[in-house]
Specification:
764 residues; alpha/beta; seven-stranded mixed beta sheet; binds ligand MGD; binds molybdenum atom
Length: 764
């Protein structure tokens, strides 16, 4: 049982006295953010985009809007915007002056003819579709790859798939649940005033900074709203973020040591008998073994490993044993080879204390009408039949667990496949939404650039030229913005309560830009001309596609059309509490969880089956001083990377002047004591170096990091450096310093921090 309802009766467009039209719509990408659906009021006068404001009708942000959306007009009218399809001879890859404008027809002819040529030569899997983080394009990745191109080579090149998928996998295996999130009353009309909701006493914020990231379908605004209603915080973060500074307890751990801390918190709850016996008895599996394992990590041991006071571990664990308490678990739980163990032990705390699917607890994801929680079909996959192809998807031979996790290639092995052609050659690259050499999704990006450089055909779709396209592509298609095309955005595919929204075309696309959806359908008509459009109307046109898409979600009334949703702008989506008691999680309709035993699996039968330890354990970061004492003297510091900034979304927004004014270059946070020791002042350029590479950052001298930690920005390139090689992409490329394929046993989780380095002042 879920409810979809219209959020606001306000009209989706109003006209001001001077003729300005004010459209209400939601944003996703491009340009990017996660699939949160910020509410926009877009002011258009005489066909010109005048300004963008927050929409007070948006039920979660209530008119608040981030600085990136506010600069949409600057982006929209940017002189560097790609406006027409362009081609370039393969032999000129990397050269800016060799692009030539072509028509859409010519572009499609080239793509289709390369498609036929290369698939005849190498088979369908030679076609690869590359997406990065959750952007609108990623919503079409599997469809484009699997159904239009008939290939299995969907690529997300993030080492150890270190974004969301490890967390999602742990949710599947431990909790038998789709994506879980904190209960922020997201589905209720009266939000926090709904009598069914309870304000959590504590929120455990782990490796996440939602105020700046609005990550994975979550509006960080709600964390602050709940703090205003009395919720307190326990924050686990090596940096004193704003949330950490407002926390009752800030566990400022040594980067990468998270699993030890989480296990020790469980140990306190178990040893002090603070757990919910009834819940554990009725709804969980393997408690005894789990308890024994967690208790091998005493708070004193964890204090030593993690560099936090033992008494804070005790205190935090005791506070979290109350009801209701909730959790906000973020990216840094993924970016670690120890990831599945971290996630297992962190959510274990909430399972132990019965804080699952209760008001103000950890909201379980709806699974009843979504595919299997333990199979790879559980994670947004489109291939319906079992894969009977004797050749494995790239990397699934080395990491067979990937077959159960997600329908992309294993990211790290993809580099090997690109280099060796084993198990099949990848020669057709469709770079849909990933700027993978610009200190972003790949580790050691120079190796990826080299591996791709000689591929037979490379194309990209984007809104601006960037280093990856400049370096590699033979063809580029210009993309329309969210406000220039129709689309749809839901939070977590409606697995969580919250929103169900229209992305509306409110202004004509610049130049000849088209949306990912339009391009996908155009290509489908050319590649699959025999498709029966009467039987599968969604392939006809964007409207039919979007209309079919919204009806794929549970409980969308037959008579609600995509046009209705555009009228509404926002739909609201409710999911009941205690789904496990109501029999709403399991396919058989019985009470319990969607796991093989029907219970929360403290002892994971799935991990066991896949050859992994069924219980959480701690693994020391592989390149720390403890693991590599021989490096300690040469590389006395360690870096972490990737903390989000409001002024950019990964590699995007680097060309937006007003955002660059706020953050002009790649920065490195460094403690004042360390800065003084190395003779570094605020704003100095500093080299960060380790055995894998070297990159340059501007020092931000701040006590928010400990003396042995520096924190480096990622995603930098310099669009203004038009004469430099690939927009000076190697200058501040922290990912060059991160080792490739140092990942967890099942192929998930990689080092994005906890890496050794030395620093020294650079010339300006
Ligand atoms: N050092 C370090 N590296 C990291 C991280 C970190 O924390 N530290 N984080 C990692 C994580 S979690 C992720 S998810 C990856 C992200 O990595 P990527 O997703 O590869 O991010 P970008 O490099 O910004 O590439 C996005 C490109 O797609 C374009 N784009 C945006 N929206 C759309 C759209 O809707 N359609 C199309 N066709 N194109 C679009 C943008 O203009 C941009 O050029 O980076 C990873 N890299
Ligand atoms: N503005 C903006 N928003 C974004 C993005 C962006 O590029 N810009 N990227 C999007 C993407 S793809 C993602 S995945 C999400 C991620 O969003 P979140 O999950 O919120 O992750 P981050 O914002 O990277 O915050 C991670 C926090 O973890 C801390 N941290 C660093 N190392 C460790 C460690 O070893 N252990 C622990 N416990 N904490 C550590 C950092 O100091 C930081 O405060 O953000 C999304 N939103
Ligand atoms: Mo991500």
């Amino acid at each position: 049982m879920s409810l979809l309802s219209r959020v606001s009766e306000a009209p989706n467009m109003t006209e001001l006295e001077d003729g300005t039209k004010v459209f209400r719509t939601t944003q996703w990408s491009p340009p990017g953010c996660h699939d949160v659906a910020c509410g926009l009021r877009v002011f258009v006068k005489d066909g010109k985009l005048v300004k963008v404001e927050g929409d007070p009708e948006q039920p979660i942000t209530n008119g608040r809007l981030c600085v990136r959306c506010l600069t949409l007009p600057e982006y929209y009218y940017h002189p560097d915007r790609l406006l027409y399809p362009m081609k370039r001879d393969r032999k000129y890859r990397g050269q800016a002056d060799k692009w030539e404008r072509i028509s859409w027809d010519e572009a499609y002819d080239i793509i289709v003819s390369e498609y036929h040529r290369l698939t005849e030569k190498y088979g369908y899997d030679t076609v690869s579709v590359w997406c990065g983080t959750g952007r609108e394009a990623s919503g079409y990745q599997f469809q484009l790859c699997n159904e239009v191109f008939h290939s299995r080579t969907a690529i997300h090149a993030n080492g150890g798939w270190s974004c969301v998928i490890p967390r999602q996998t742990a949710m599947d295996w431990l909790l038998g649940s789709a994506y879980v999130e904190y209960d922020g009353a997201f589905g209720f009309e009266d939000r926090y005033d709904d009598p069914r909701w309870e304000c959590p006493k504590y929120m455990l914020v782990w490796g996440r900074n939602p105020l700046w990231s609005n990550p994975d379908g979550l509006f960080g605004h709600s964390t602050v709203d709940m703090m205003k209603r009395g919720m307190k915080l326990i924050v686990v973060d090596p940096r004193a973020s704003w949330l950490a500074m407002h926390a009752e307890i800030h566990l400022q751990l040594r980067p990468g040591t998270d699993a030890a801390l989480a296990m020790a918190m469980n140990a306190v709850i178990i040893n002090e008998d603070l757990y919910d016996h009834e819940f554990v008895e009725c709804w969980t599996y393997g408690f005894e073994e789990y308890a024994e394992r967690c208790c091998t990590m005493t708070p004193e041991m964890a204090a030593e490993i993690c560099d936090v006071p033992a008494e804070d571990i005790y205190r935090a664990a005791r506070l979290l044993a109350q009801k209701p308490c909730t959790a906000s678990v973020g990216l840094k739980a993924d970016q670690n080879p120890n990831t599945l163990q971290i996630c297992h032990a962190v959510w274990g705390i909430f399972a132990l204390c019965g804080n699952l699917d209760n008001p103000g607890g950890v909201k379980l994801g709806q699974t009843m009408k979504t595919a299997g929680a333990t199979g790879r079909k559980g994670v947004g996959c489109q291939i319906e039949e079992e894969d009977t192809n004797p050749i494995p998807i790239a990397g699934h031979d080395q990491y067979p667990a990937m077959d159960f996790i997600i329908n992309t290639t294993q990211p790290d092995c993809t580099l090997d496949t690109l280099l060796t052609g084993i198990p099949y050659p990848i020669e057709f690259l469709y770079i849909q939404s990933s700027n993978f050499i610009s200190s972003c999704i790949t580790q050691q990006p120079k190796r990826w650039l080299e591996a791709c450089r000689h591929k037979e055909f490379i194309m990209a779709t984007d809104i601006m030229m960037n280093p990856t396209i400049q370096g590699l592509a033979d063809l580029v298609l210009p993309l329309s913005f969210a406000i220039e095309h129709d689309g749809f955005v839901s939070l977590h595919g409606c697995n969580q309560p919250g929103q169900f929204n229209a992305i509306r075309k409110v202004i004509e696309p610049a130049g000849e830009c088209k949306s990912d959806l339009e391009i996908m359908l155009d290509l489908d008509h050319r590649i699959n001309p025999d498709r029966d459009l009467e039987a599968e109307p969604k392939w006809k046109d964007p409207y039919n596609y979007l209309n079919a898409k919204i009806h794929n979600f549970p409980d969308v009334p037959e008579d609600v059309t995509y046009a209705d949703l555009c009228e509404w702008v926002y739909g609201r989506y409710e999911i009941p509490y205690y789904q496990y008691k109501l029999g709403l999680l399991r396919a058989d309709g019985q009470p319990g969880f969607k796991s093989p035993t029907g219970r929360v699996e403290f002892w994971s039968t799935v991990k066991n089956k896949l050859g992994e330890d069924p219980l959480p354990y701690y693994e020391e970061p592989r390149f720390s001083k403890i693991s590599r004492p021989e490096w300690a003297e040469k590389y006395p510091l360690q870096f972490t990377t990737g903390a989000r900034r409001p002024t950019s979304f990964h590699t995007e927004h680097r060309m937006i002047d007003s955002l660059r004014e706020i953050r002009p270059a790649a920065m490195m946070e460094i403690n004042p004591v360390t800065a003084e020791k190395y003779g570094i002042s605020q704003g100095d350029w500093v080299y960060v170096e380790n055995p894998w590479g070297r990159a340059k950052f501007k020092a931000d001298v701040t006590p928010i990091v400990k003396e042995y930690v520096v924190n480096c920005d990622h995603g930098w390139w310099y669009p203004e450096a038009k004469d430099a090689e690939l927009f000076d992409v190697w200058k501040s490329n922290i990912n060059e310093l991160m080792p490739h394929k140092e990942i967890g046993k099942l192929g998930l989780g990689s080092h994005y921090g906890a890496l050794p380095c030395k620093i020294y002042r650079a010339e300006d």
